[in-house]
Structure formats: C-alpha cells, structure tokens
Amino acid sequence: MVKNYKLITVNHKVLNTKDLEHFMLRYNTQSELKTKLTSLKQIFGQEEVIYLNTCNRVIFLFYGQPDIDQKSVANFFTVVNPDLGKDQLSRLDMIVECYQGIEAINHIMEVASSVNSLVVGEREIFRQFRDAYGQSKKQHLCGDKMRLVEQSTVKAAKDVYTNTAIGAKPVSVVSLAIKEFLKRELHTKARILLIGSGETNSTVGRFLKKHGYRNIIIFNRSLDNAQKLSDELGAEARYLGSLSDYTEGFDCIFTCTAAQDPIITSDVYDKIADANESKLLIDLSIPNNVEREVAQLDSVDYISIDSIRALAEENMKFRSSNISAAKDIISGHVADFSKLYDRRKVEQALGSLPEEISKIKDRALNLVYKDKIDELPDEAQDLIKEIAAYMEKKCVAVPMKMAKEMVD
Q1: Which residues are within 8 A (CB) of 398 and not within 5 positions of it... i.e. 6 or more apart?
Q2: Distance between CA atoms of residues 65 and 68, nearest Å
Q3: By C-alpha distance, which of 121, 151, 106 is closest to 133?
Q4: What is the pLDDT, as a whole number, of residue 400?
Q5: Which domain, by its residues, includes 298?
Q6: 372/380 Cα distance (integer angstroms)
Q7: Integer angstrom CA distances of residue 111 from 84, 323, 326, 365
Q8: pLDDT tens-digit profile of 95-119?
Q9: Half-sphere exposure of residue 255, counting CA atoms within 13 Å on the CB side?
Q10: Is residue 223 part of a domain?
Q11: Are residues 355 and 251 part of one domain?
C-alpha cells in the first residue's frame, strides 16, 4: 500500500544547524549507522529505510505497516537520541514534520528537486538523496519499495531541473564573485593574491585553478592554516603581516578575512600596487577588508560583498519564481508514482503465474493426456505441443495485460 510510506523530517525552517544535530543519528562508521538503522526498523516494525542528513535537514523515509505519526515521534526520537532534552521533546509537534503515503512521496520529490531547500535550486541535495539511497541499498536496509521511490524521484528532479529555471542564475557569493572576475577577462597568467585562506577563499582558489589560473600567492595570519590550500593550489603561502612589504605586483586581489578593520588601507595599497596600472579588488569580507578610499580610486575596479549579495538575492527571487512550475511537474510525477506502485503490485501478485501455467501445461502433456498423445502420429504430437506452448504464453500475457490496463 502506498500509505505504508512514511517520512519524518526536521529541517532548516524550524531549527538552526546546531540544534538540528540533536535529531540526527550519531555514528562513527557506516557499520555503526547500519546497526542503528536496523534497530530503528525492528523497534518500529518497518521493512525498509532511507536515511538522509545534511547540514540543513534530517529525513527518515520508511516503508512498513505500523504508522509513525506525531503521536509516536517522541518515542522515535528518544531512540534516535536518548540524550534529547525535555524542552526539545516537549516541542516536537512544532519541530518535527510527519508525512504518510502519497504526501511522503511528494515531499521527498520536492526535497530532491530543491524546491524547499535553504538555497532553492541547489543541486547538491539531489546528489545527497541519491547517495543516501545508494548507501541504504548497499547495506541492505531497503529493497523494491524504495527502489521505486528512488527511480521516480530521480526522474521528477531531472524533469524539474530541465524544464524550469529553478537552478538558473548563481546565488552563492563565490560563484557570483568568480562570474564577475571572469567578465574582466584577465589573462591566465594574471598575478592573483588571496588574502585569507578560509572556506570562502578556498572555494575561490579551486575555481581559479579550474579556470587555469596558477599565478597565485596566499596571504594569511597563520601559515599552518594556509598550508592545505597552498598545497592544493600549488601556490606560495606568506604571512599576512608581510603584505605591506610585497613588491612583486598583482592584477587582482580576492580578500576574505575576519578582520574588523580594513587590511588594504591606502598606505598598504600604495606600497603594493603599481600606480599606473588598473587593479581588480574583490572584497568578500564583512566588514570590508578594503578601505573606502582605496575602493573609490579611479584605477581600482572594486567589487564588494554588498553588490554580490544584492545580485544573489535578485537571482534567488528569480529561482523562487519557478517553484510553482516545479511543484506542478512534481504533482504529475507523484500521480505517475501511484500508478507505478500499483503496477508493481500487480506484477508481484502475478509473478508466479507463468510458473503455475507451465506446470498445468506440463501435467496435461506428460500425465493427463500422455497416453492419448502417444497414440497420435509424430506430426500430430508436435502440433499439440506447439498449440499448448502458444496457449501457455497467451494465458500468461492476457491476465497481466488486463491487470495493468486496470491500474492505468
């Protein structure tokens, strides 16, 4: 029964990342995860499970007869996390969402299609869903019922990404910064300085490497923290304190640090920049790392985090305008899933039909009518066997066809 699908989720809409961790399974190895999911299946009488957790959501997708609804989620999450606090347990009705049957299928399709993601249109959740299914399959935690879900959900998500603009126009700060950088068409030998080696500039560095830029120097407060990025990019790492002594020239600076005061002040800029050359400064810091006087110089092409974030918000609005169209597409796939599920039930119910009819044919030829057939000429015997084989095929095909037509 489709109603045997049920989905339990906690996501970014109600909890921040730190609090969300309380509703995730804690494990160190995949073997430990398998043990815990197997235990959940057994305790709550479920046949199959897919477990999906990201920094923005946790999802338990089950198939089985016993219901798991809002009334039983307290017991459920007490098993998931025995250390869950009383305050959190008392607010589960406001924190946890439960879906059953076709609503569960609709929800997982919307998740994989990034319709209700924190960042609408980001395809990473699609990959994460497929990985979660693959892991459950590998660990024998799911079977045919979840195979149907994965098959239909992948088809729905691809349809959404292909036939809507939900994933169009980048919305991440780094993607937009790189897009602006590429618009300037700097030569791949351009001298680029990365000031800061945190997550943002690490991603910037990977984009630069991907587009063929290799002439990179990293400035950071700690060389140890910059070493990993330095090794990955094949770039030199230097102390940030030595920036004002840098005299080798540059064409572009990406800066992103946690400094509360500007790093590229007028004094620093005058020391490191060639006075007659235009420079591209991309400031991804809050507060800004580039002093206002530097940003306003005629020779400086300045791109601030504020302008990038404004463009990101505009692009997000554009993506969000496609949500309605995406949901219409998903509705069609949800309806198709119901037919697919019913058709699969028919196939399984009639799965033994070919073997049973074959047994009837063999018994008729080799036992019931054997003596009479043996008295016939060889040509007549061959004809009877040919007719029996033909009838066997038709007796299998006709009821299967009729049953599938009834489902459709």
Answers
A1: none
A2: 9
A3: 151
A4: 67
A5: 173-305
A6: 11
A7: 26, 12, 11, 56
A8: 999 999 999 999 999 999 999 888 8
A9: 27
A10: yes
A11: no
Q: Give me the number of domains the chain comprises.
A: 3
Both 217 and 327 in one domain: the answer is no
Three-state secondary structure along 15-45? CCHHHHHHHCCCCCCHHHHHHHHHHHHHHCC
CB atoms within 10 A of CB 38: 14
Instruction: Note the Cα 286 to chain centre separation in Å.
Output: 29
Instruction: Please report, as a single letter, which amino acid is at residue 98.
Output: C
Q: What are phi and psi for residue 48, nearest 5 degrees?
A: -140, 155
Is the CB of residue 146 less than 8 Å from the CB of residue 50?
yes
In the DSSP assignment, the letter for residue 368 is: I
Q: Classify residue 192: in a domain, yes or no.
A: yes
Q: Which helix (H) or strand (E) holds 61?
A: strand 57-63
Q: What are phi and psi of 225, to 5 degrees?
A: -70, -25
**pTM (predicted TM-score):** 0.71
Q: Do 188 and 104 sit in the same domain of this protein?
A: no
Strands laid side by side in the 192-195 sheet: 236-239, 216-220, 192-195, 252-255, 279-283, 300-304
- CA dist., res. 45 & res. 65, Å (int): 7
Residue 17 C-alpha from the chain's centroid? 17
pLDDT (tens digit per residue) in 236-263: 999 999 999 999 999 999 999 988 999 9
Q: Within this chain, do residues 202 and 162 fall inside the same structural domain, yes or no?
A: no
- Residue 192 and residue 254 in contact, taking contact as beta carbons nearer than 8 Å: yes
Which residues touch 330 (CB under 8 Å, ≥6 apart)?
A: 106, 109, 110, 113, 115, 156, 160
**How far does CA 14 lie from the centroid of its chain?**
20
Q: Residue 193: give its domain's CATH number.
A: 3.40.50.720
Amino acid identity of residue 115, one-letter, is V
Phi-psi sector, 73: left (phi>0), alpha (psi -120 to 50), beta: alpha
